[in-house]
Q: What sequence folds into this?
């Protein structure tokens, strides 16, 4: 089966985001807001160079939409890292990757792209797979569960705004606005939470920024190339990779229900893609 460029880009984005999740989990002593700040500084520098070289107009008729994409993306990212740091990696990603559900549902209202009727049961199957993986763990705090769900909702809005900006602005400008909005937002909380990183932590923080920049390029191009309903469900691959990373790096093993959940997700991804319009 030939994979088109949009699908290829979203898969590559998932691989990079999965690596970032492991690094964030590893930085146990660094507050999530501080990680987002460092990630945004690196991203602003790298994307700023590209925007300058391409001579893109930073402020234009689409600035309000670009700002909203940056705002929702920033809030989603802070909640994303916050949830990862305070929950088991696999369970956290399972909750956070409800975002494809929100992405497809919100696409109906934001970009007027409803899913096909045949997709709906397989979208539901992906959601059921996530529930199996999570196992309704009673040890998971309602607070962190809520933060994860809200973060997923914000991510769904951000992905649809990227889709709305297609053919209106260059994808590098969309990426540039993310840190442009995120940095001032993190500075509100950073003075009270700052922790001085050691050399190793500092290098990992910079690496997170570089890898996130690469992931953002792939993700942004994917949502500008394909309909949200066609590629949103591929984000579940990061959920699967989170469990594999948990086994390899954090000694977190899958039980029977989790394996059933992974199978549901794979089937859901395959057939949602097959029936995408």
A:
């Amino acid at each position: 089966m030939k994979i088109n460029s949009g699908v290829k880009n979203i898969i590559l984005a998932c691989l990079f985001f999965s690596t970032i999740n492991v690094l964030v989990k590893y930085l146990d002593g660094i507050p999530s807001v501080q990680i987002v700040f460092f990630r945004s500084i690196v991203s602003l520098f790298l994307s700023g160079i590209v925007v300058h070289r391409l001579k893109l107009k930073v402020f234009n008729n689409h600035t309000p939409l670009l700002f909203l994409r940056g705002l929702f993306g920033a809030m989603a990212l802070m909640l994303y890292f916050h949830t990862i740091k305070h929950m088991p990696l696999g369970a956290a990603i399972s909750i956070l990757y409800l975002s494809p559900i929100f992405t497809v549902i919100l696409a109906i209202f934001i970009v007027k792209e409803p899913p096909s009727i045949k997709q709906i049961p397989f979208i539901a199957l992906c959601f059921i797979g996530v529930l199996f993986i999570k196992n309704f763990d009673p040890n998971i705090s309602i607070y962190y569960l809520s933060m994860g769900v809200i973060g997923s909702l914000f991510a769904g809005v951000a992905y649809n705004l990227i889709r709305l900006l297609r053919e209106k602005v260059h994808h590098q400008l969309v990426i540039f606005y993310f840190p442009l909005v995120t940095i001032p937002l993190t500075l509100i909380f950073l003075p009270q939470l700052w922790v001085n990183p050691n050399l190793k932590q500092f290098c990992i923080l910079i690496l997170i920024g570089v890898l996130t920049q690469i992931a953002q390029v792939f993700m942004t191009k994917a949502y500008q190339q394909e309909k949200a309903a066609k590629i949103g469900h591929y984000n579940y691959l990061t959920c699967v990779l989170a469990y594999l990373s948990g086994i390899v790096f954090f000694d977190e093993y899958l039980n029977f229900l989790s394996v059933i959940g992974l199978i549901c997700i794979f089937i859901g991804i395959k057939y949602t893609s097959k029936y995408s319009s």
